[in-house]
Amino acid sequence: MSTPTTFTLEVLRFDPTTDTEPYYQTYQVPYDEDWVVLDALTWVKDNLDSSLTFRWSCHMAVCGSCGMQVNGTPVLTCKAFLRDYVPATVKVEPLRNFPIERDLVVGLDGFIDRLEAIKPYIIRKDDKPIDEGAYVQLPKQLKRFKHHTLCINCLLCYSACPQMGLNPDFLGPAALALAHRYNLDSRDEGRRERQKVTGSAEGVWECTFVSACSEVCPKGVEPAGAIQEQKVQNSLDWFLDRLVPGRKAP
Ligand code: SF4
Ligand code: FES
Q1: Which of 41, 60, 155 to mutate to test the pocket of ligand 2 (most atoms within 8 A of CB)?
Q2: Using CA atoms, how far apart are residues 229 and 50, in angstroms rounded to an integer?
Q3: pLDDT tens, 114-149?
Q4: Where is the 2Fe-2S ferredoxin-type domain (predicted)?
C-alpha cells in the first residue's frame, strides 16, 4: 500500500461562549509517519485554525497534560503515532468523564479535590525533632510502593474507568493509587486517617475491578491493583479492630 500524503483528522470542538452543543470538525492534515497525534493538532493550530484549543507541555510523556481520546481510547497524544491509525480517520475527543472547558481541554477541579481528600503526604502521629535526622527508608521498603509513585496525573485512567461514568463522585483510580502509595510508605502513619475517605461510599468499594485504568496507564502505576490491595487492608483492619480491642495500627 502506498504511503498517504494526507489524512483526515476529526476533532471535537466546543466553545462554551458561542456553542450550545459540541460538534465535530474535520481537517486534511499532511501525513508524516514520525508525527504523533499532538503534532497533527499543532499543525492544524499553526496552519488552519488558531482557535483550536488543547493542552500539552513536554512532548515526551512526562508532564501528563496531553491526554485525549483518540479513536475512542484514552492516550497521551504525544505518544500516539499517526502510523498506528492512518489511513483511517483519526478522531480526537477530550477525555471522557470530565467536563469540557473548551475543545479538547477538560476541567480538572474535581480531580484536584480528590487528590486533596486522600491526604497525599506523609502523616506522623509524633513528628521527631529535625535535629534527630531524617526518617530512614530502605530500598526494599521503597520497592513495595515505588510503582505507585510514578503517576503523572494524566487522567487516562479516569477516562477509561466505566465506574466513573456511573458514579461521578467515585474517588477514582489515580487518587486511590496515591492513597495506597502513602499507606505503604514505611515513614507514614496515616492509613487510618485516609481510610475515612478510601473506605467511604465513594472509595475503594465502588471499584468493580474492570482494570481498564491499569490497561491505559502509560506509567505502570497499576491503580487497579492498588485499589484491590486497599480492599483487603481495609477489611483486615476492620476485623482485627474487633478481635483485638485497643489494637494500634497506622
Ligand atoms: S494512574 Fe496512570 S493513567 Fe492514571 S493519572 Fe496516573 S499515570 Fe495517568
Ligand atoms: S505533552 Fe507532556 S505528557 Fe504529552
Answers
A1: 60
A2: 46
A3: 999 999 999 999 888 989 999 999 999 999 999 999
A4: 7-96
